[in-house]
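Example 3.
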Amino acid sequence: MKRRTFLKLSALTVGATALGLGVTGCSKETDVSIDGFPDMPETLGQAVEATVDLQSGEVKINSDILVKSSVCMGCYSSCGVRAKIDKKTGRIMKLTGNPYHPKCAEPALPYDTTIKESYQAFSLHGDKGLTNRATVCARGNSTFEQVYDPMRITTPLKRAGERGSGKWKPISWEQLIEETVEGGKIFTELGDDTVVEGFRKIYSQDELINPDSPEMGPKSNGLVWISGGSYGRINFAQRFVLNSFGSTNFYGHTGT
Ligand code: SF4
C-alpha cells in the first residue's frame, strides 16, 4: 500500500469509526480502498449505526441501534451529542457529535435536513468533504462512562463518623426526607445529641431570622444552598430554594 493511500485510509477509518458509521461502495476511483469494512470481526470494533454508499448515497440504518440526541455536560460548553445505544441492552455504546449543533459542525446542518441527509453529510458522498462530520472533544466522547461508573452515587449518604472523617453510610430516600424536613437528634448513634433544625423549623417568611438584624431577612434565609456543577439540577434547586422556600441564599458553582 502506498504511503498516501495508507494515510487516507487511516484518516477515513478513524473518522468513520468515531462517528459509529460504516462506509460502503468505495471503488478504486476514490483512491481509498477499504474492501472488507465494515464486515470485519466484531472483536475489532462496535457494530455501526448506519452505512453510506459513497457512490449512490444510499443510507442503510442498523435497526439494532437507537440514536438519541442530547447535550454534553462534560464542561460548560454544552455541545450537542448523539448517544449510540444498543437496543437489546439499553446501554450507551458511545457518544459522538451532533451535526445539527453549531458547537459540533461548521457549518451546522439546517434543522430541516433529513436524517438520511445528515448521514450522507457525515460521509464523503458527494465530495463535500467532512465539514459536517460533527465532533466532540475527548472528554465529551467519554462522559457517558459516568453513567456506568461503579463509584457513581445513586442513594443518599449520611455522615457516619466525625465531621471530616470521610465516613458515610447509605440511607433510604424516606429517611433523608424525614430527617431533612423534621430535623431532631439525627446523629445520636454517633454519640452526638445536637438538635439539628429541619426545613419545617426554619421555614418562615413572616419571622425574622434575627430580630436584632432585620437586614438579614426572614427565617427562611437559614436555608443555604451551595451548588456543584449544573447537570440539569440547578433549575430545580433554584425553583425550590428561591421561589418555594423563599431563601435568598442560593450560590452557584462559582459563587464563592
Ligand atoms: S464535548 Fe467537550 S467541550 Fe463540549 S461540552 Fe462536552 S466536555 Fe465540554
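The CA atoms of residues 41 and 47 lie 10 Å apart. Residues 3-18 form the longest helix (16 residues).
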